[in-house]
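Suppose you are handed only these lines of text.
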Amino acid sequence: MILLSVESTCDETAVALVEDGRRVLSDQIFSQADLHAVYGGVVPEIASRSHVEVIYQLADRAIAEAGLRKRDIDAVAVSYAPGLIGAVLVGVSFAKSVASALGVPLVPVHHIRGHMAANYLAYPGLEPPYVCLAISGGNSLIVDVRDYTEMRVLGATRDDAAGECFDKVARVLGLGYPGGKPVDALARTGRDDAFTLPVAQVEGRPYDMSFSGLKTAVINLVHKAAQTGTELDRADLCASFEKAVSEALVPRAMAAVRELGYGKLVAAGGVAANTRVRADLEAAAAQAGVRLYVPPLRLCGDNAAMVGAQGYYELLAGHTANSDLNAYASRELDA
Ligand code: KG4
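From them, the structure of the protein bound to KG4 can be written out as follows.
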């Protein structure tokens, strides 16, 4: 079964063709990062306008690259939530018109479920149940994935997402947008014990996280250094910051795997590209005898292939939508 899949929740426009949820026939991505870099973050209206400009061309290119005809498409999947509402609306409207024109089912996919499904493309043998650590620009979640479309959120961030925190830290250190990559690169040359930074616990909710205190601690250090004219070692600060982020994520995810007894941990989302987080996950999983699945770097960030992977399983479960499908800025993963 071949799905045409669409992603436009933030600043990547993407269209892919995926066969049976596991094989990518084409994966077209247009990143708007350069358009937003000058503003230091994503400007929602610019994002929506850029999606409108490129989405049809990307679809044509995907179909041509896969060597298919439009009538070979069996269904259309689309990220319908969560995201920047104007941006998501572009993808949803496009997907609806394509599904209607081709007379095929329309499959709504939760964007974070898509991130998780990126692992089905990378690991043909991966099957639920497993625990997923989903860490992206807008979400940080620990999820009990019982089956392909049946999941329960065990814990979530109470405030900022991990990726958001990377972006804020990069901004205050003058490292540009998006911030994850430059912080990652700089941290590699720094000492992670140079600064002691807070790792928050949420009382009575062992799997919940909080990153706003960490973010504020880094911002305060930078401001204080500027006020006193002290030279701050940015590499040391990035390394210490990453250590704190990793300490907030990895032990919690491992505790969930232990509690549920699945023996499998899956990472997903943009922050899963982080060198420190990947290394700490690998070490913790090896020590505990847990099988770890981390997407290759190209599948960590937003893409449409992951939407096609999850869309296949949503379609098999009968989760299709009608022409009144709407876009949502926020939506529970396990609703
Ligand atoms: O999953 P994603 O591409 O978009 C969302 O669905 O949100 O995640 C984007 C986030 C950004 O905050 C970006 O700074 C972060 O992932 N990111 C990283 C790295 N690469 C991207 N964070 C830490 N280390 C990285 N290497």
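What can we learn from it? Residues 130 and 261 are 9 Å apart (CA to CA). The longest helix spans residues 234-260.
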